[in-house]
Amino acid sequence: MDYEYKVNGQTVRLAEDPDLVGVRYLEPAPHSLRAAFSSSVGADVTERIEIPNEKFTLLKSPSAAPMSVSHAVNAAVGNRPAGVARTTPVFKLGETRVLATDRILLGMKDPATPVSGLLKDVNYESIAPRGFGEYTVTLAPDVDPLATVQQLAPSEDLAYIEPDFVNLMVKPALDDVSADAAAQGGPGSERAYAARQYAIQLTAADQAWKLVQGNLAIKIAVLDDGIDTRHLDLRQSVIAGYDACDKDNFQEPNAWDGHGTACAGLAAAVPSSTDGVRGIGGGCSIMAVRIAYSDRPRGVWTTSPGQIAEAVDWCWQNGASVLSNSWSDTSASSAVIAAFGRALTLGRGGKGCVVVVAAGNRPGPVGFPSNLPGVICVAASTPKDEPKTPSSDDGENWWGSSYGPEVLVAAPGVKNYTTDITGPAGYNPGGDYYPGFNGTSSATPLVAGACALVLSANPTLSGAQVTAIIAQSADKVGSVSYVDGRNDQMGYGRLNVLKAVQLAITS
Asked: Over 80: is that where the pLDDT of 64 sits?
């Protein structure tokens, strides 16, 4: 069964993955019940994927199964055990897999209109207002959110309604740290790694620092899987934190979730020693905002539009200047679009936040939300100033940057040296730094740090003016043609921090 829903009036179609199915158990659900139901539909309980925060389990078809697990579940639905509340299809979105939770997200055209009348025939457990006439509605465990959205969608009172999909995102593949360490003189030779911050020289950030230093009043929100605030290069910069996954202020990452810590270093780390990392926006503040997590090493990231929208609103309402988003290809969402729209227009006292988003790491069109108007969509370039593709000359043939008319700028996205979770956790079990951070994930915080440095030079600029400066100051590099000043792989060119700061000073 495929599924469709509306996002800003446009139809989004999702194709079912026949080899996966989501099961919502009634808690407490003992392991024996889970194993029995898995066996009854031909799934291997040892290969299940647990989503504990959502109380869902994903069952996978064995490779030699005579029928897909989703078909088997549909066939067995009449004999469903008492401990199973409902099952739900899993949909494909590139490499991301999504399934509907017990929640729906909705916005009213008139915030003064009571939402209770709309839900009078719906079996729900709670209604949580999110401000601006928007709500998160938690349904009873056995209620189908997909059918509920289709049932309520025709209401003329609604600005939007959509399922709050769980997104299971594949983590980017990274360089082997042991191989890098061997090439640089063995494990622990972190002084040698420091020379690999080639992006500082390539983007002329070191020259920009002679004109302006990062201002602590300029805040970069890093929306990711958490930041290690114990790191010596970050602990003075992180001034606030929020965890949209657990709804509290403790955003510290799981030991294996090093992505956010790596991003934070490139954006605004301040080196604590000669071996340390200098972020492009070093001296600015960091707001650590956790929107995703994985439940085990090399596991998939788990997030949802509801968490993302809540985090975005928290950022601009708590004084963020720049929002750095090193993730992409999530399910399209009106709630997320609305939250980013508020950040772009209401943030910074009406001047607007600068929103920076990774283009994505698959060589094809950019995904959501990097395709939204007003954001800075960042593609990746190589150390040789070429577009990053699977065939580019950089030794990383397993990935290429996404591209398209939405790309505004490119930045180095190969082998960036950055901060890692302290101790044996994170990407590098032998140190507190990682020499091979890559992807548009690593290019994005470089641009976010540059935006913060631009605002440090001229805090009166609007968010839209900063975006324009980043485009106008970029270098037209690479063996690609620029039509009317831009290219779908490189945008308006590769980031030049010095030129951006110079434009800001004279604006």
From this structure: no
